[in-house]
Design goal:
Length: 502
Amino acid sequence: MFDGGRHAKSLSVDTGGSKLDSKVDDGAASSRSQGSKPLNESEKNPKPKVLSKEEIELKESVDELLKDMEQMKERFAKLLLGEDMSGGGKGVSSALALSNAFTNLAASIFGEQRRLEPMPPERKAKWRKEIDWLLSVTGYVVEMVPSQQKGKDGTIMEIMTTKQRTDLHMNVPALRKLDMMLLDCLDNFKEPQEFFYVKKNSDDKDKDPKTKNDDKWWLPTPKVPPEGLSDNARRFLQYQKDCVNQVLKAAMAINAQVITEMEVPESYIDSLPKNGRSSLGESIYKSITVEHFDPDQLLSTMDLSSEHKILDIKNRIEASIVIWKRKMHQKDGKPSWSSAVSLEKRELFEERAETILLLLKQRFPGIPQSALEISKIQFNRDVGQAVLESYSRILESLAFTVLSRIDDVLHVDFQTQTPGKKSSSKTSSRPSPREEGGDSGQMTLLDFMGWGSSDQGSEGKKEKDPSAMSDEQQQKLPNVNTHKKTSYLDNLNIMRSPTSRH
């Protein structure tokens, strides 16, 4: 019995071994058969994976996002370094670096805005993307405000919380709205239009002798049909002009308010003369200190025939205002003026000088920045004010540029309608955009800001009736217009940083 059991066990082991050996033999034969089989072409060169449309779009969006991240790193690295790429700590302040970033971005985007036409989609997308980057810092400029918090036990505690600074909370959305209005205005000038542009090297332009001595020789010349623009096209241009004019006034008001709130640098104060009389000059000082003051009459007697002369007068008036304000608000309380001049008269003279300054800014929005404005921007340390000033300045410049392009088309149409006046000068045949805005009953910059000369209320405001003016005044008033209306973007020197222009 035991022998049979041992025999059965050995038989099972032998059987299992034979099964295992057969499996090994089958595997070897299989491997030999597969090794001997040649590979086809599809196995040698596998086909690349075909991506679907969604996968391609996803890959492109990821690549674009990575590219934007690299650009953002570069932008903010320059801001953190203060434009000093050596990292030696010799860069400018964060406020000035941010102001220069706004200025340089506007120069790269709007520097070629020479025609009334929509912006290319690539430039518009770049502008909106990068302006959002630069404006993102305003979300972190906060102020502490008191608030109440209710505890778990029902008790109310007073705590301090943070919120966006008030001036940024009010002005940044307003500037974004003005930005959108300007871009929408450019989008309205789509093809087809009744006017068109001629390149400077074209035959039509060479035949026209008026364009050879034009002060804007680098710009393409607008052309209209021989019979002029239609009434609908003329009304459309006038409507766009009024809209852009309102944007210009709002941007100017915000920019003027922000610059006014900036502190006057000590370096600028040290460079001022001792009194306002020596800064203004004898003739302007006497005109301001007379009993009956008329700012329009004073401007009509000034030599405003060139941009340089206007800027010089603006610098002198701003210097006198700073001198008078400092003397009126001296901390020690000691009188620095003659005892014959009362405090009321000092304030009156200072308000009159500010009125003249505002009229200059209103009539000539394209003049360069004054020495005081450059100095304030250069030494400003407030990041919020730097953002508001630079953003409003570039919008003001773009609005003035678009306004000038609309004026050019309307001027050509005016010459077509009145052939006998073609020989007259461009500035004398049509008023400036600022004068047209004032004559049409729209809100002026003085009304928008709520500023004005207080002495006019006591003396009685007189309506400026052109028929009541003398012949001599009517001949002097057109001389207020400059022959060269230059915006911040037409003159590349204006677009440079305040440090390089100082």
